[in-house]
Write a structure and sequence with these properties.
The complex is a heterodimer. Chain A is an all-alpha fold. Chain A contains ten helices and no strands. Chain B is mainly alpha-helical. Chain B folds into two domains: 72 residues, 434 Repressor (Amino-terminal Domain) (Orthogonal Bundle), CATH 1.10.260; 128 residues, no CATH class. The chains are: A mainly alpha, B mainly alpha.
């Protein structure tokens, strides 16, 4: 079940990235292309098979997981900036790119790196699932490391939620309202991720479900807004768009 | 509230016993799929009855009055008030009247310049529903309508802003305001002025009866409301552009 979700999310993101190539070549909103490419990479690195294969190449120390964290940070930063700009939310831009936002990013990134280096991470395993059982110390370190990784997306999402909710309930075009609605779902799901340590172990699959719900609604929201624009464009310009 | 399909079938049989559904649709211009769907659901829209009665030269108000939930329409029609009549004049027509009057005043004593503005565009206009309710509102009307019909005040306002009102609500609004029951149906465009029994030229007469001051104030109010609407549209447009520039 989760496997299907993972691979289809990967396929959707990959397709979106490929579909963005023509506009990226024309120089339209390249950052959106990078967002889809990085998101595709992040999903690829979070799937068991590709993760283990890549991590073995990189020495089998789970450094791939660290790379994945930083890829996610980059996607979130880019998405956050674009969405805050798009929805005309100066407060959100300040929270994300202002001294506070960048400070938080720096602290979290440093913490992620340090916790990773302190922990015993030998032996490739996706999601670092078996590492905590090695020692109580490792369990604590990995727990904190994972929490740090979820904190930054949660912070950015919470900064953007007011703007997307306002757009979703506005009088704008339907595609924008639906897109903003999907983005809002993602921005509720991402902060929900910080509550994972409180969830009992039996609800493990729920965590993955929330994660992919967040990714899918985030990508779905961006796609909806983009498709809305393509459809609203006059046919002459649309025909120059390969997709 | 839409009309029950059974009562509709009975009514249809009464006015055109021989005609098939296909004939009815062809003559009245109601889409066959639309009518079929309404009959299957058991609820026929008032507009369907209006279109069909027009095709058979029956007054739509009289036709609606044969249905139980619209039986009160059968009472002899009450003439619209001056305020209602003026509310059904389009903003641009009011502005033209302002210009025609001032041109008339300037040209008085000079050449025999035509003083009359062009004929009024037929009701309804772009904000006719809201203007109509404003014209008959004593300050408590919206409240009374929502109590009487159970519609939430914000839903009622949303309909007015969208220049829509269900026939049921239009009649309830008239009833609560104590004016002729068909005024709202004219404002929503369901029936014409003539079908509602408004005398020809009634709107023009009501307009002519306005003093220059009243006309100028009214036109000013309408223009201000129009300005607000346009500004909101421009803002939405601007916001859409920003969103597409960043995320499209």
């Amino acid at each position: 079940m989760i496997e299907i979700l993972q691979w289809s999310t990967l396929a959707i993101c990959g397709a979106a990235a490929v579909a963005r190539i023509p506009s990226a070549v024309r120089g339209e909103n390249r950052s959106l292309f990078y967002i889809f490419v990085l998101a595709t990479l992040a999903i690829l690195l979070s799937i068991d098979g590709p993760y283990v294969a890549i991590d073995r190449l990189l020495g089998g120390t789970n450094v791939t997981n660290l790379i994945l964290r930083f890829v996610i940070f980059a996607v979130i930063l880019l998405v956050g900036y674009r969405i805050a700009r798009g929805f005309g939310a100066p407060a959100s831009i300040r929270l994300i790119l202002g001294p506070i936002g960048l400070g938080i990013l720096a602290v979290i990134a440093t913490a992620t790196l340090v916790l990773f280096l302190l922990a015993d991470t030998e032996g490739s395993v996706a999601g670092l699932t078996t590492l905590p059982s090695r020692s109580p110390r490792n369990a604590q370190l990995i727990e904190l490391y994972a929490a740090a990784g979820r904190l930054y997306p949660a912070y950015v999402a919470a900064s953007l939620l007011p703007a997307t909710l306002a757009a979703a309930s506005s009088n704008l075009a339907a595609s924008i309202r639906w897109g903003a609605g999907l983005l809002s779902v993602a921005f509720v799901a991402l902060p929900a991720g910080t509550l994972y340590p409180l969830l009992p172990d039996e609800l493990g699959p729920l965590k993955a479900l929330i994660n992919y719900l967040a990714v899918l609604s985030l990508m779905g929201g961006l796609l909806t807004i983009w498709i809305g624009r393509v459809r609203a464009q006059p046919p002459a310009r649309r025909s120059s768009t390969a997709k | 509230m839409p009309l029950p399909a059974k009562a509709f079938q009975r009514w249809l049989h009464g006015i055109a016993p021989q005609a098939s559904t296909a004939d009815i649709c062809r003559i009245s211009g109601v889409k066959r799929t639309t009518l079929a769907q309404q009959l299957v659901r058991g609820k026929v829209a008032e507009s369907t009855v209006v279109s069909i009665s027009r095709a058979f030269n029956i007054n739509p108000v009289a036709a609606l009055a044969t249905f139980e939930n619209y039986s009160e329409l059968a009472a002899s029609p009450v003439l619209p008030s001056a305020a209602e009549l003026v509310s059904q004049i389009a903003t641009m027509d009011l502005l033209k009247a302002v210009i025609a009057r001032s041109a008339g005043a300037a040209g008085r004593g000079g050449t025999d310049a035509p003083e009359h503005a062009p004929p009024l565009t037929p009701a309804p206009h772009a904000t006719s529903v809201k203007n109509w309710v404003d014209a008959i509102d004593d300050g408590e009307l919206r409240h009374r309508v929502s109590t009487a019909t159970g519609i939430a005040p914000q839903n009622y306002s949303a309909q007015l802003t969208a220049n829509r009102l269900t026939p049921e609500l239009a009649i309830a609004t008239s009833r609560e305001a104590g004016v002729g029951l068909t005024g709202g149906l004219v404002a929503t465009g369901m029936i014409t002025e003539a079908e509602a029994g408004w005398p020809p030229g009634a709107r023009q007469a009501a307009l002519d009866a306005l003093t220059d001051g009243e006309l100028a104030a009214l036109a000013g109010e309408r223009l201000q409301a129009l300005g607000k609407t346009l500004k909101r549209q421009e803002q939405d447009h601007e916001q859409t552009k920003t969103i597409w520039e960043n995320l499209g």
